[in-house]
Predict the structure.
Amino acid sequence: MTNQKASALGLFRNRFVQVILMSGLLLQIGIWVRNYSILLYVTDMTDGSKVAVSLISVAEFLPIFVFSFIGGTFADRWRPKRTMIWCDFLSAVSIFAVLLAIHFGSWKAVFFVTFVSSILSQFSQPSGLKLFKLHVPEELMQTGMSAYQTLFAIFMVLGPGLGTVVYGNLGIEWAIGITGVAFLLSAGVLFFLPNDRVSEQTEGGKAVWEEMKAGFRYVLASKMLSRLGNCFFFAGLGIGLIQPLAIFLITDHLGLPKERLSWLLTVNGIAMLIGGALAIAFASKISPQKLLALGTIVSAVAIAVCGISTVFTVTLVAQFFSGLVGPFIQIGINTMVLRNTEEAFVGRVNGILNPLFMGAMVITMTLGGWLAGLLDLMPVYLLSSVLLLISALILVPLFRQKQEGGSIQEIA
C-alpha cells in the first residue's frame, strides 16, 4: 500500500501530469457545455427533428474517419506541445466565429463548432499520447492513464447536468462563449508543458505519404498491434449494435416510461467514476492485457444480462458493472498502445486503430434498429455480447507474452 501511495504521489508531482489534467478539466467543461447546449438548441430550433439531431453525431464522428490517420501522421511529424496549443486555440477561434454567426441569426452554424473541434481533436489527441510516452515513466503510465480516464468518468456524471443548466439559464450564446473561453484557457495552460524536444521526427524529413505507408507497415509487422486492431474491430461491432437501442430497452423490453433511461445513464456514469478510482488503486497490480480482457468479458456478460432481464433492478445492476469496467477497457488499450509503440509511430498507430473501432461501430449502428425490428431486442443484445467475447478471445495469446524493455515480447 505504501508503494502505491508513493507511486501516486510521484505521478501527481509530475509536471506533465499536472498540466494535462488541468487542460483536460477545462476541455471537458467546454465539451460538455457545447455538446448538450447544441443538442438542446437544435432540438428547440427544429421542433425535435430526428434528422437535425442526428447531424450533430455526424459532425462529431465523420472527422474521425476522414482525419484520424492524417492527424496521427502529422502528430508524428509536428512538435506535440505546439500542436496541442494550436489545436485548442483554433478551436476557440472557430467557436467565437460561430458565436458571431449565431448572434446575427445563422443558427445552423452550431454544427460547424462540433465539426471543426472534432477535426482538430484528431491532431491533438495523438499528440497528447506522444507526450504521455515522453514524460510519464513506464511504471507510472497505467496509473497516469487511470487518472486521466477518471476525469472523463467524472464528467460522464456531471457533464449532462452542467450543459443543461448552462443552456437552460443562460442560452446558446453564453453556452458557446463559455466553451470558447474554456478552450482558450486550456491552450494557455498547455504553455506550462515541458518544452518540445527537436528531433528528426519533428523536423519532418520524409514525404507525408511515405510516413503514412510506414505507419501501416509498422502496425502489420507488430503481432500485438495487429491483434489489438482485430480486438478493436469486433468490440466496435458489438458496441455499435446496441448503441442506438438503449431507449427501446426501457420502453419496449421493460415496458417503462422513456424517462427511466436517465437512471441507466446516471448509474453508468457513477460506476465509471468508481471504476476509474479502482484502476488508479490497482494499476501497479494488473497488466494492461488483463485489464482490457477483464473489462471486455464483464461488459459482454452485462450486455447479455441487459438483453435477457425483464426486471428493471437487474438491468440497473448489469448497467453498473458495464460502467464499472468501462475505464478498464480504455486504460488497458491506451497503456498497451503506448508501451508497445515507438515514440515516432504513436500518432499513426492511434490513427489506424481508432477508425477500425469507429468504422465497425458505425456499420452495426446502421443495422441495430433493423435487426431489433426483425429479431427483437434480446437476440440483438446477445449477438452484441458474443461479438465482445470474440474480441476478448483475440487477446488470449497476449497472456503468453511478457514485458521486456518497454515492449511486449513473445515467449518462445
